[in-house]
Design a protein that fits this description.
The protein has one helix and eight strands. By secondary structure, it is mainly beta.
């Protein structure tokens, strides 16, 4: 089972409205395969959705609505089990954020 709690994930904005890249600090535990279990909530943590488990430290998330609050977190996992989840990262996209990314692209 992975040791330690992951740091809070980060978000990278893209020029596409409603599309972000979530990134995590890559986990290294010898040569064991590590998986990233991501969760998202759209209602302040009342409902938590498990996203499909992936084997790399970043994931693309689409269809985020402008102005809506999202929370995401992750846990590292191996075939032996899942570790604890990180703190929640809160994301709320604004028109200004999207506009700045488009201008920089």
């Amino acid at each position: 089972m992975p040791e330690g709690v992951p740091t809070k994930p980060r978000v990278v904005l893209t020029p596409d409205p409603g599309v972000i890249i979530l990134t995590a600090v890559p986990y290294k535990q010898g040569k064991k395969a590590i998986f990233y279990n991501w969760q998202i909530s759209e209602d302040g943590g009342e409902t938590i959705t498990n996203l499909p488990v992936i084997g790399h430290s970043h994931r693309r998330r689409t269809t985020l609505a402008l102005g809506k609050l999202y929370q995401v977190r992750l846990a590292y996992a191996t075939t032996a089990g899942e570790g604890p989840f990180s703190d929640w990262l809160e994301i709320s996209l604004t028109r200004d954020m999207v506009k700045q990314v488009k201008m920089a692209a």
